[in-house]
Amino acid sequence: MKLSQLQREFINHFQGNFPLEERPFREIADQLGSTEDSIIAIVNKLKQDRLISRFGPLYDAARIGGGLTLAAMTVPEDRYQMVTETVNSYHEVAHNYRREHELNMWFVLATEQPEDLHEVISSIEKVTGLTVFNFPKQQEFYIGLWLHLSSDGKHSTVPVPDQVQNPVMDLGHDHHLDDTDRKLISATQAGLPVEPSPYKNIADSLDLTQDDVLQRLQNMLCSGVIRRIGAVPNHYRIGLTANGMTVWNVPDNKIEQLGKLIGQLDFVSHCYQRPRHLPVWPYNLFAMVHGHNEDEVKNKVKKIETLLAENCSSYETLFSSAILKKTGLRLAA
């Protein structure tokens, strides 16, 4: 789908850095040489066409105090649809993908408390009769899917801009969430209202002042509870339809060095250490790579293979072949 220049500029600049001001869309309009009404119309159109999957704060489940993990199952083909419906019925399942591998169902679990993860996994195993392999994050080397959209359609992933990765204000300590913060998270986790004064709308709904809402969002942003505020592009709709989860078997005593090396590549959007599950799963380094097609992803994977060289004894690329479920983190008020 072809995007206008203004649509591309909005997405390129505001996947983060959405202004925490009384009239944020007017501020964006001034920066892009447009009008407030035009920017609001563009955001509504992008949402309507599903070119952005959501618009608002991106929360970090772990910093909120919840549990977050990646899990996988081997599902027989004749039961795949039924198991998909069962797994997706759990509200704790945020994302679920079919991947071309013996482990053919991969899903993200997000829970209110870390200890709830075990209960959900046990419940899924009991209901389906299938083993769930748990892959919690052990180290995070990089996370930051940021797209750059070009006029010729050759869109690409790029590193998250420094000013988004490093907030200007530093609180110097973790931000402890109170009940009002949690209500604010609940009110904004699905996105911000697309209107001239979105923060006043939220403030009115929670019986708060606009200044209080802005200050609380700023505190959560700067302490890392919010990763960033802005548009979340739907990379599938935009044209980056190949999604490769690359997994690598590297020495445990070198994984921090190697993870940071791979995480610095401009085409890697996520890079983590996760546990092995021998003998089924020998891999401990995960890196997500996106591209317009599988060949493009495979070429990028070759670059990772070259960098790891003799430090990698085996690897695989698991391509997603279907999105089974995709929602954001949901925290009860």
What report would you give on this structure?
This protein is globular. A hairpin with a 7-residue loop joins strand 7 (146-148) and strand 8 (156-158). The chain starts with a helix and ends in a 7-residue tail after the last strand. The protein has 333 residues and is α+β, with helices and mostly antiparallel strands. The chain is 37% helix and 26% strand. The longest helix has 15 residues, at 294-308. Helix 2 (24-32) crosses helix 3 and helix 9 packs across helix 10. It has a nine-stranded antiparallel beta sheet with strand order 5-2-4-3-13-10-12-11-6. The chain has a two-stranded antiparallel ribbon with strand order 1-9. A two-stranded antiparallel sheet has the order 7-8. The protein has 13 helices and 13 strands.
Radius of gyration: 20 Å
Report strand order across the widest sheet: 5-2-4-3-13-10-12-11-6
* Strand segment count: 13
Give the mean pLDDT: 92
Written as H for each helix and E for each strand, in order along the chain, the element string is HHHEHEHEEHEEEEHHHHEHEHEEHE
Task: Output the number of helix runs.
Answer: 13
Based on secondary structure, the structural category is: alpha+beta
Query: What percent strand?
Result: 25-35%
Helix content: 25-40%
Looking at the structure, what is the overall shape? globular
Unreliably modeled segments: none
State the end-to-end distance.
37 Å
What characterizes the major β-sheet? 9 strands, antiparallel
